[in-house]
Amino acid sequence: MYRAVCCVLLVATAPCVARADDAATVARLKKLMPKDQLAMTERAEEVLETDRRAAAETNGLRRKDLQEKSARAYKELAADLTAKLQTEGLVGWVLECKQVHETGLALSAPGLFGMGMAFDGMAAAMRETCRGLEPGDAVAFTLRPNPRARVASRYATTVLLPFGRADGRAVQSLEKK
Q: Are 41 and 30 in contact (CB under 8 A)?
C-alpha cells in the first residue's frame, strides 16, 4: 500500500493569498534566496504589478492589452516553474514560515509563491524540525524532481507533487535559516 506525501506549491495572483509583503521581510528573504528563486520571484512580482496596473486602468483597450501581457508573462512563468519542478526540483528555495498546524506547515515568499507541506509520510527528524518552526522563521528546502508536477490554472495555481513510498519523499531536505 502506498502512503502519499503531498507537497503543494501555490502560485497565485489573487490578492487573498497570504504573502510575505512587508519590506523588511521581503529584503531578508531575498538575501537568502538562491539565484533561480530570486529570478522567478522578480518575474512573479512583475506579473503582479501588471495585474495591478490593469485593474486600475480606465481605458478598456489599454486594460485589455495589460491583461493579455500579464497572461502571457504568467504562462511563461508557469511553464518555466513546471519545467524546473519536473527536471531539477527546487534546490535550496527559501520561504517564510506562516503557520504550523498539527498536520502540516504553511510557507510563503514575496510575489506569487506559497507552499503547504503535509507532515504525513515525512521523516521523523524533518517533522520535528517543522514543528519547531515559528511564524516569521526563514526556511530553506529542497524538493526532488517529479515528472508529474504541473501548473494548471491562471489564478491560485496549484502544483501537486505526489510521491508514493516507492518514490521516496517529496521534501529532500528542510532547515531553518
A: yes
Question: Under a CB-based contact definition with an 8 Å cutoff, are residues 10 and 152 in contact?
Answer: no
E-assigned strand segments in the chain? 5-11, 90-100, 104-108, 113-118, 138-143, 157-163, 171-176
- What is the rounded average pLDDT for all residues in the chain? 75
Number of compact structural domains in the chain? 1
Instruction: Give the domain range for residue 166.
Output: 5-176
Report CA torsion sign: 99, 116, 4, 122: negative
Q: Is residue 99 within 8 Å of residue 106, measured between CB atoms? A: yes
Higher pLDDT, 177 or 38: 38
Residue 105 is which amino acid? L
Cell numbers standing for residue 108: 510563503
Strand order in the sheet with 171-176: 157-163, 5-11, 113-118, 104-108, 90-100, 138-143, 171-176
pTM of the complete model: 0.74
